[in-house]
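Supplementary Note 3. Input sequence used for the single-chain structure prediction.
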Amino acid sequence: MLWVREHNRLADELAKAHPTWSDEQIFQRARAIVIGELQAITYNEYMPALLGRENVPDYTGYNPSAVAQTSLTFATGAFRVPHSQVANDFLLLGPGGQPTGRVGLFQGML
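The predicted structure, written as discrete structure tokens, is reproduced below.
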């Protein structure tokens, strides 16, 4: 839900900044920005926290010859690690950021 809201926030900003763009142009640009944000968080914060900063090489730029496949080893093992890191429930926060209750994982995904 967070990424949907971020996409919509960006789309609103892009629509204001570029009034001649079509809905499709706005959608695709907002989509590209959100993907970039997610990739940056994953590569710069999550992977170093999970693997250790010394095990995450510095980004040196786009490599068009890089193979963009997922290995079987990763798909069956490492890809599942984050599933064990999901909490059973989540803290609900009010408008001022104060806790107001909790919601279970299943209920929170509905």
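Residues 1-68 form one domain. The mean pLDDT is 90.
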